[in-house]
Amino acid sequence: MSTLVIVEHDNKMMHPATRNTVAAAIQLKENPVLLVVGHQCQTVAEQAATIAGVHAVWLVDSAVYAHQLAENISELVIGMASSFSAILAPASTFGKNIAPRIAAKLDVAQISDVSRVIDQNTFEHPIYAGNAIETVRVLDSIKVLTIRTTAFDSINAEQSPCCIEHVDTIIESTTSKFVRHELSRSERPDLGSAKIVVSGGRGLQSAEKFKLIEELADALGAAVGASRAAVDAGFVPNDYQVGQTGKVVAPALYLAIGISGAVQHLAGMKDSKVIVAINKDEDAPIFQIANYGLVGDLFELVPQLIEQLKKRA
Amino acid sequence: MKTLVAVKRVIDPYVKVRVKSDNSGVETQNVKMSMNPFDEIAIEEAVRLQEQKHVTEIVAVSIGTDASQETLRHALALGADRAILIRSEKHLCSLNIAKILQKITLDEKPDLILMGKQSIDGDNNQTPQMLAALLNWPQATFASKLNINGRAIEVTREIDGGLETLAMDLPVIVSTDLRLNEPRYASLPNIMKAKRKPLDIIELDSMGLNLKEHIQVLTVTSPPTRSGGVKLNSIEELLNKLQHEAKVL
């Protein structure tokens, strides 16, 4: 019995979250098998095959899987499930969409956002927006888990590629069809895996002024995040949102600028190594968790910070 | 077309939760409870679809103790036509909740099921996908826009890199994201009217379901607390600290 890891990718590149998910899989059991499902995604399988510790890669390559619809991927995975004691996916929108569907078809429970593996049946995960940690024991024989990737160190070590096996099971989804994508384009590092994240909130006042956050991010080589207030006010697209309902990040350095620190936002960033807050309200809750705080007008402080960073560079 | 909306009673999102001293769960005694915010969005969407004449009847359903009647009355005040409470004292996992909702779906035969993408207590984000699997219906999770044209529905979903639009035929399950709509407030006349709307109570034990235990909760603990940091006076000081003390630059 082994562990199956479902690889997230865009048919060209393996998503870096795979490396964290494999780390969790290795804690569960030796010899994880990585499943790459998509269309013309051979390069993804080749990337997956070199992650240290991966036992085998199963590649299912067909036009019917081009958009990785939950309806056909879940059918494909349940057909393979009897060979595995655990099925893992990253707790991204991709993993959250498919894992519960797989679990229900197998008549087993699913544990979401696993932040710690205690043993093969026992896991920790955050509940109540990260304000409590629940330890659960799964009684089913197959464990279906989504992995909180920020809680597991990415496996960056490489191995000589393991074997890539082609699987030719074709399950076409007749009920659901892909129509279109509207992806946000960015040259900056990916929010979920960036070492430094700069986030702006309502205090930025407008989409125009939010550009200041982007300037600072560029000076630091950081990803840009936002609070829900900034997203709802239309300053930035919603996929920038950090929080319980957006992305969960845990970078080495998180700068919260013009963000008060509502529970919903803290759920998405409070595991960052170092938190810096810049806010004009000295009673803002963000200061209770920030390692370093600066009370003042962000429109004065942030340009100073950018200037100083440029000077040091 | 008929719509089923599943709603859950949870601790109000603005309450700071406290873990019980015996680590058996969080304190729910004398704590303000509300409808899960994502479920309010689901109700609101159903009401808007009814206002656009796509939907003929909205049935709100909840699983829980007698206190969940309050949540269902709130759903009725927001515009649901009738409500069903499946009464149970048990703590149920997502899969068992999905099985109960599957039974209700087979009885009620809705064309569209709207649910919040996650409840803000368990944060699981599972039940809609599980219900879709059990019914073998297509799923449209994390929806931020719906477009209905006869039996065809187009749903725009919030995904990590942006948005994705899928097309499917009814019946479907849609789980709602925050940006789908802005829920309305219940007016006093509507709250009064809601008291006369039908609310059926079904005992879970009478449903003939064989629900086995899948998960045991061992403990619930507080997360490690962060020690409060220091306030600095200047950008120079901040950069020095980040460079030499925290060593993150």
From TrEMBL, chain A:
FAD binds at residues 202, 227-228, 241-245, 258-265, 279. Residues 3-182 form the Electron transfer flavoprotein alpha/beta-subunit N-terminal domain. SMART domains: ETF (SM00893). Its cofactor is FAD. InterPro entries: DHS-like_NAD/FAD-binding_dom, ETF_a/b_N, ETF_a/FixB, ETF_alpha_N, ETF_asu_C, ETF_asu_C_CS, Rossmann-like_a/b/a_fold. It holds the Pfam family ETF. Keywords: Electron transport, FAD, Flavoprotein, Transport. The keyword Nuclease does not apply. GO terms for molecular function: electron transfer activity; flavin adenine dinucleotide binding. The electron transfer flavoprotein serves as a specific electron acceptor for other dehydrogenases. It transfers the electrons to the main respiratory chain via ETF-ubiquinone oxidoreductase (ETF dehydrogenase). Belongs to the ETF alpha-subunit/FixB family. This is Electron transfer flavoprotein subunit alpha. It comes from Legionella feeleii. The gene is etfA.
TrEMBL record, chain B:
One of its GO terms (biological process) is carboxylic acid catabolic process. GO terms for molecular function: electron transfer activity. Pfam families: ETF (PF01012). The keyword Ribonucleoprotein does not apply. It comes from the Bacteria. InterPro entries: ET-Flavoprotein_bsu_CS (IPR000049), ETF_a/b_N (IPR014730), ETF_b (IPR012255), ETF_beta_N (IPR033948), Rossmann-like_a/b/a_fold (IPR014729). Gene3D superfamilies: HUPs. Its cofactor is AMP. Keywords: Electron transport, Transport. Residues 23-211 form the Electron transfer flavoprotein alpha/beta-subunit N-terminal domain. Heterodimer of an alpha and a beta subunit. Belongs to the ETF beta-subunit/FixA family. The electron transfer flavoprotein serves as a specific electron acceptor for other dehydrogenases. It transfers the electrons to the main respiratory chain via ETF-ubiquinone oxidoreductase (ETF dehydrogenase). This is Electron transfer flavoprotein subunit beta. It comes from Legionella feeleii. The gene is etfB.
